Amino acid sequence: MKIIQETVDWIKRLKDEGVLGLIMILWIILLIGATTVYVLDYDSENRTITNIFDAFYWAWVTMTTVGFGDLTPATPAARIAASIMMFFSLALISFFTATISSIFVARKIREGKGLEKINYTEHYVICGWNDLADELLDAFLKQDNEEQTPIVLVNELSEEEIDSWRSKLNASHLGFVRGDFTQDQILEKANISKAKAVLILPNLIKNSEAEADEKTALATYSIKALAPKTKVYAYILQYENRSKLRRAKVDGIIVADEFGPYLGASQLHNPGIPAFLSEMLNTEQSRIHTKPVPDKMIGQTFGDLFISSFEEHGTTVMGLYLEETSAGIGDFLTADSGDYLDQFIAAKLKAAGRSGDEEHKVKVRINPEKDYIIKPGEQMILLK
Length: 384
Prior knowledge:
The chain is α/β, with parallel strands linked by helices.
């Protein structure tokens, strides 16, 4: 379906640029030229073009400037007709080539300006921008160094600023869509429905902190409406705005400086803890990462997994996490428009700001008991 849609879009674009008209004119010249030469050479004893197929073959080879020389017009009149055909065909082919080139050049320019639709799939989308965004991008690229997952930035930065970040971070797989990330058409340009996950940052370019969180919530609603299956993670500045994001069905919330008070107290009572966390979360070394539990360890104990991971890879398993998908009440409601009870329940859910769709939850177990049994689908949180 996607290939068909892209083909239709390209045909429409070629039509708008006049390319289809040029192709039609070239075919008309080919038909007229081939037929004319064949008719004018028909009675010649020295003719090499003996049938209409040869005439079309000669015209095609001549128009494309290949010119094998195996077939040639024999009579003066046929040669004059061939010369006229070559003049017009060469001019039109040159114009056709220039038009096609200009389309690709214009597309590249529009991509650089963030005005073209992104064709990435299974990519990450980062919406919004602030002073910490470059550090976040740098950390992400280092952690994703092996996979090279495409990233699409959606914000209102200028083309020069985006090019500067591309060269600074050495990220060739960094796409860009310029515009307001709360707008559906902008999100569709980022191919949001095919994205692996979306991270929304507080957009402090033009907004205050309170407005930035409001925009984050609005963007979450828009993304979930367009792509319900896409994971959305939101970074907010004010703790009290978490409820708004939960109503928007966000998959994860990061609160700015949420752990500041704890780290401040720990610095006085347990000074080793902040130093340990700083070293563990150092973006230069990426000491902490996740990995699926090996199949051979499913059904085994956490103690066995801990020993196996350390002995085989020298990594410490600090915990486990499992992404669970729970069935929503919508799975049990009938689609029959005549069922008034189901309609009433759905209306009440909507009025309460809740959805009947399935919900995603991440269940984390930090340092579980050594006899805890590993479940299918669990991921390891590892320290290198």
